[in-house]
């Protein structure tokens, strides 16, 4: 559906606008509200909840969505998707998790006292 809307949005701009407003933007608003609640509860330190929600969505969605769109849904496994979600969440919490005893660039997830395990995947560029 998303591919169809993207492909036809120049001919049917109202369709693209509606998908943006009722789909993607609505999801970001829901996420921003959750970030705002977590910030008010003292779990996160966030100045701009809308920006933080956009950053979180980008961290966890960018690679899996683009891979699925360009290579087909069957090319990414549930394990890979879970890895993207975990690493995106870790990155988000490194930036926004409220922990006054942490060193810059580190975080501890609220549900554990152990530091995050670094990714063992090596990416090589030509």
Automatic annotation (TrEMBL):
Region Disordered, residue ranges: 97-126
Polar residues composition-biased segments: 97-109
Ranges where the Transcriptional regulator TetR C-terminal Proteobacteria type domain occurs: 1-97
Family annotation (InterPro entries): TetR_C_Proteobacteria (IPR039536)
Protein name: Transcriptional regulator TetR C-terminal Proteobacteria type domain-containing protein
Organism: Fodinicola feengrottensis
